[in-house]
Specification:
Length: 67
Amino acid sequence: MMAMMWAGTLIWLAILVVLAVATATWFRHLSHWRRDADDPLAILQLRLARGEISLNEYEALRQHLER
């Protein structure tokens, strides 16, 4: 009987650890996404990837941002 209680406790602890790790990973990913959203060069690269600007426009804007 005592072994079953320990096993149940260990299972609950394992579930809590998995939930804590998943939550921490999610928050880390979310903060990384927000940081990229505020970075002008990342926005510029995203616009180039989407085809919103040409390569020439990208190069000119990148040089302007790096000054």
